[in-house]
Design goal:
Elements (H helix, E strand, L loop, with lengths): L1 H10 L5 E4 L2 E4 L3 H11 L2 H10 L3 E11 L4 E6 L2 E6 L9 E6 L5 E4 L8 E4 L1 E6 L3 E6 L3 E6 H7 L5 E4 L6 E2 L1
Antiparallel strand pairs: 1-2, 3-4, 3-6, 4-5, 6-13, 7-12, 8-12, 9-10, 10-11
Helix pairs in contact: 1-2, 2-3
């Protein structure tokens, strides 16, 4: 149940425990299970996340770790992103960066991408009831409010911003 406490702290969720045939589980469906497994670094987390499509899962390599400053650098393709310190990993480890679509920001590109921004090509926009899901090349999805999307609808060049605190690794 230690993973459930970590999920509560990380996501600020309230869960009830119930006893099932296979032991304890979190009430609230697959998203809670994926979040729990992914935030704790369980190997099953990646398979579950891929199955349900809840997270963006991007292969990367850890380039730098600084536990004193609570920072890390990960290399995703040709782009380097800053993130929080990832305990239990070493420099050079190949990991999967795990980030929720609503935590990312899709912005119109204005010159060279800034810190924690990568250029991206929009493949399609999908309407959801309260937001738009923008799907970019490389399998990255970003959820944005309709009003925000309407302002940048005609943009040709995009950047995706990865907030430092939203990155997790598997």
């Amino acid at each position: 149940m230690r993973w459930l406490r970590r999920v509560r702290r990380w996501r600020g969720l309230h869960h009830r425990r119930r006893r099932g045939r296979r032991g304890w589980d979190a009430k609230g469906g697959g998203e809670v299970a994926v979040g729990a497994a992914a935030s704790c670094g369980f190997a099953e987390g990646e398979a579950v996340a891929r199955l349900l499509g809840v997270f963006n899962l991007i292969p990367a390599e850890i380039r730098a770790l600084d536990p004193g400053r609570n920072t890390s650098k990960v290399q995703m393709g040709e782009h380097e992103l800053d993130g929080p310190y990832f305990p239990g990993h070493l420099k050079g480890d190949r990991v999967t960066v795990c980030v929720r679509p609503e935590r990312l920001a899709a912005l119109a590109r204005n010159g060279k991408p800034g810190v924690n921004q990568i250029p991206a090509q929009l493949e399609r926009a999908v309407e959801k009831p309260q937001w738009m899901r923008l799907e970019f090349a490389g399998g990255i999805a970003v959820d944005v409010a309709r009003a925000d999307y309407e302002r940048v609808r005609d943009t040709k060049d995009w950047v995706i911003e990865f907030p430092k605190e939203s990155l997790r690794v598997l």
